[in-house]
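Students often ask why we bother predicting the structure of a whole assembly rather than each chain alone. The short answer is interfaces. A chain on its own may look different once its partners are present, and contacts between molecules only exist in the joint model. In this exercise we take two input lines together and write out one structure for the complete complex. Read the inputs first and try to guess which parts will touch.
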Amino acid sequence: MRTDSINGIVTGAAGGIGLAICRMLLEAGAPKVGMLDSQPEKLQAAREELAAAYAPDRVRQFCLDVRDQEKVARAVEQFAEWAGGLNLAVNCAGVLLDGAVMSVSFAGVKRYPLEQWETTLDTNLTGAFLVSREAIAAMLRSRIPNSSPDECRGLVVTISSISRLGRAGQAAYSASKGALVSLAVTLAQELAPSRIRSVAIAPGLVDTPMAARIPQVHRSEMLDRVTVGRMGCPDEIAHAVRFCIENEFFNGRVLEIDGGAF
Amino acid sequence: MNEQPIVSRVANVFHEAFAVPAEIITSQTAPDDVPKWDSLGHMNMVSILEKEFGLQFEIDEIMEMASVQNILDVLARKGIKD
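Now the answer. The structure tokens for the assembled complex follow.
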């Protein structure tokens, strides 16, 4: 797929990696980009920034919580109608609510709250499922002018994490990010006959507002285990998304962009 | 028999658990003084402490360890003292 033929939606688009992906798409000539996010003010500001930098008629915002099935379905439908089709969905929305499952310390016995577990799994995993499901339905409906039978007709990119294999203090986040990989691989297998690809990207520590909430001491500890010795930038993850778009032999796999973390 | 003072052995445990110089650890050291001494770090520190002194702590004892002095008190009750 050519990036300049992308009509795509990105969740978590108001900041960090999601915003960088939207910017990359517009910069590369994607005709239409849909920005989905649950934070109205941040989303408005991000859309205005991109509309000013590129063209107002190439970018549209949808303020919603990815856990809301009906709003997700409506937004995807509205985008596809506005853009004349949909061929990319990027699942980037996520929350990070750190905490050990169970700990005993000077602070007493602490159990990770079920509410936080559910918020994390619902947002990071179920949200990606809902967005992927509706986006795939739109991709299947989309007509691709002059496309060959070998050409990919759509792509789902799911942002997982270096924490997908487990990380102390991040049980909910790790579990959600691990499950996202399973979802991405499953979608790749199910959708291959429809010429829709599905991939995951596993970023390491990236300089985003989410990473800024990780206590400094733990961030330093993580950085000590990054061979390039620094955090990644959101643009470097956006660049990986572009690779996923343009390399049609890449499917059903995880692309690790973590600075060689060990 | 380990001839080191108990507080020095505890300081070495802190060095291993929290990567801080053992020299800065005193009986007055508390969680706020050691950046990595949070609830996860505490569990790790207690595990190293148990290995160092060859004993096991009860949950109440683990929760009592809100400073190095508290740790020394718990150890003393278990017969570990200078």
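Check your guess against this: The two ends of chain B are 12 Å apart (CA to CA).
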